[in-house]
Amino acid sequence: MRLLVAVASRHGSTRQIAEEIGRSAARASLLLGEFADVEVRPPAQAGALAGYDAVILGSAVYNGRWLDEARRLAESERVVLARLPVWLLSCGLPGTSAGEAIAPAEAARLENLVRSHEHRVFRGKLDWHGLDPGEREHAVKLRLGCGDQRDWADIRNWAYTVIGALHAAETAVPDRLAG
Q1: Phi-psi label, residue 8: left if phi above 0, alpha if psi -120 to 50, beta otherwise
Q2: What is the mean pLDDT of residues 146-160?
Q3: Which end of the chain, C or N, has fewer beta carbons within 10 A?
């Protein structure tokens, strides 16, 4: 199985989530007795999607929206993505709830565009040292604190769930052929 994890990240926190998802997906696949060729790439380097068996597509969220790079991939490859099993992920700022991280209209548009199985929102990390002055000002207005609120166990478990769903779909035998 070939799995692409294509996630846009501005400061690296969301990329680290993507890398952990990739490692966890490969590990879960091996535990199921299979080998998954898992590639973790930025959306701009994803290449042709037709060679993949499944895709996890995601982005850091700023002002309720995905980064342009991830949105462009979803829009330009929507026909291919609609034919593949696709999971979406969004990474929001620390101190925001999952519902506040991405605007509901943006989430619904992306989910419908690629016909995703699920759209998961994870909390992120905010490091003041990596922010530009405009981003710092925005974080102050939102009263966001610094820190890392990524839940690594939850992130790994989600990757295991994705692999479990793919494994179940691959090994399912229609009832009429089972007997």
Answers
A1: beta
A2: 90
A3: C
Q: Sign of the CA dihedral 6, 166, 24, 148?
A: positive
pLDDT computed for residue 50 by the predictor: 85
Q: Which two tokens mark 112?
A: 């419908």
Q: Tell me if 6 sits within 8 A of 57, measured CB to CB.
A: yes
- State mean pLDDT over 1-30: 95
